[in-house]
Amino acid sequence: MSPRIEPTLGPPVPGSSELRPEPVRRVLPPAPQAPERHSILGMLFMSLLLAAAALVLAIVALRWLPPPTSSYMLQSPVKPVQYRWVPAGDIADTARRAVVAADDQKFWTHHGFDMEAIEQAQQYNSNPRHHRRGASTISQQTAKNLFLWPGGYVRKGIEAGLTVLIEKLWGKNRILDVYLNIAEFGPGIYGVEAASQSFFGKPASRLSAEEAARLAAVLPNPRHWSVRNPGPYVQARTAWILGQMGYASPGTPQEEPEPPAAGTPEALPDAGDRDESLPAPAPRAEPRQGGSGPPASQGGAEAPAAEAPPPAADKPPD
Questions:
Q1: H or E segment at 39?
Q2: Is the separation of the CB atoms in 103 and 216 below 8 Å?
Q3: Which phi-psi region, left, alpha or beta, contains residue 112 (left: φ > 0; alpha: ψ -120 to 50)?
Q4: How far is CA 301 from the centre of its chain?
Q5: Is 112 exposed, middle or buried (CB count within 10 Å of its CB: 0-12, 13-18, 19+)?
Q6: What's the pLDDT at 34?
Q7: pTM
Q8: Which domain holds residue 197?
């Protein structure tokens, strides 16, 4: 029987074939990594920041440059759209007065929002039998038409921020000129110049008060109400706008007409049916040229008021 060899803990003898067990090594778990969502949120924040900066730069540039297109033009179901930018000097003052009288009579005095109109619209819309009424100012509509899309509370929030920016960076005159150049006056017809040429065969610089009022009358819903062949509502609203501009005559509505009930929109004419005639919605005479007094009455009829826009429709400097 061979002798038992005891294991030794000492260092191995050189040349010895004795095996020594390897020391046990502790393997540490890998260090925890930061969640990936932090990096995703950071990238999203940076993207939003860059988009906001680009938007501000675009608004600054559009203080002087004409917009090549608008968000609503890009979303138009009618392609190609009719759009031609014209400078402020090529737009008749009647067009400015008409849209202010029709849509935003406090335009020159508010700072982008008409809080009184918003409260009135909320009270009016609380009645389910009423046709829904909006309270957007020309400044809000300009921001929406130029950069945004229809509908939604998110859009309303972004619109409010853009409205503040263009009010601060552009001024009232520029806002009104941009609005007139990008507003939709008919399916695929954007801007007062394209509308004037399409409906009346003349440049926007030569629009009469009645033609400008008819263009403004369809702005709440230009894809359902027609400038070329106006129905009863557009005719009544045209007469009301003319009265607000200072062209009152017997029978002029004192209150803004109610739009047609839902489900009975005024039919649009055929796109190729061009009517160059412009019948008046109500008999009226043009304001007298020259002089400050009213013209002489004829046939016992009350003379129309002389051309004198109300203070809200005047155009003050920026």
A1: helix 36-61
A2: yes
A3: left
A4: 42
A5: buried
A6: 58
A7: 0.71
A8: 67-270+304-313
